[in-house]
Amino acid sequence: EVQLVESGGGLVQPGGSLRLSCAASGFTFSSYAMHWVRQAPGKGLEYVSAISSNGGSTYYANSVKGRFTISRDNSKNTLYLQMGSLRAEDMAVYYCATRTGTVTTSPFDYWGQGTLVTVSS
Amino acid sequence: SYVLTQPPSVSVAPGKTARITCGGNNIGSKSVHWYQQKPGQAPVLVIYYDSDRPSGIPERFSGSNSGNTATLTISRVEAGDEADYYCQVWDSSSDHPVVFGGGTKLTVL
Q1: Of B45, B85, B104, which to mutate for an interface test with A (greatest number of A Cβ within 10 Å)?
Q2: CA distance linking residue A72 with residue A57, whole number of Å
Q3: Which stretches of chain B score pLDDT less than 50?
Q4: What is the pLDDT of residue B96?
Q5: Which of A13, A82, B36, B69 is surrounded by the most beta carbons within 10 Å?
């Protein structure tokens, strides 16, 4: 069974940093790109970041570019999101997700339960 | 960047049919995926590639996509279908490859 378990969320002051983790199991983690999607309170889904299977290619939404860094450790089956210079608008539930399909346009078929990041003084 | 437009809310009586639309420029040329999200839970894929259903999703859920509109149809709506629904496409021509619609709150009356 595929499982994605996020951790690391919490309360952080504006301008602060936080590192999220996503522990994966039940599939060959090193074979798949991984993604972060966030959802601000009461709002819709926002695609934040992605990393290729070997970590060699990354993507960031404009809203987080230069402040967030995505990485992965395939030996630990774990995805990370290092968040810096946090702003109030970064407050959200952060989901890690993956696509096990082989087609470029395949859907996100597995999601974690999410971890809440609260940015407040 | 590519924009997907969904109605904020749709209401339907139990046993009736709900239709949730997702508008986008020539969306019929793209593959559309639909996710269901209940309060406090992660999104769940309910329709992929316009009209395919993952295992475990009831046959009451169906999808279509043509022209500028994709549609998620839920037949014989049940109280348990009340949730937010999001459409999603991949826009390979853009710097923003993943696009979600704004979401539609389905209310079962």
Answers
A1: B45
A2: 11
A3: none
A4: 83
A5: B36
Best interface-test mutation with B: which of A3, A36, A45, A103 has the largest number of B CBs within 10 A?
A45
pLDDT (tens digit per residue) in A1-21:
999 999 999 999 999 999 999
Task: Please indicate whether, in this complex, the C-beta atoms of A111 and B43 are within 8 angstroms of each other.
Answer: yes
Q: Is A95 on the interface with B (CB under 8 A)?
A: yes
Q: By CB neighbour count within 10 A (0-12 exposed, 13-18 middle, 19+ buried), where does B7 fall?
A: middle
Residue A60, chain B, CB below 8 Å: the answer is: no
Nearest residue of B to residue A48 by CA position? B98
B57 at the A interface (CB within 8 A)? no
- Exposure of A40 by Cβ count < 10 A (0-12 exposed, 13-18 middle, 19+ buried)? middle
Residues facing residue B17 across a β-bridge: none
A113 part of contact set with chain B, CB < 8 Å: yes
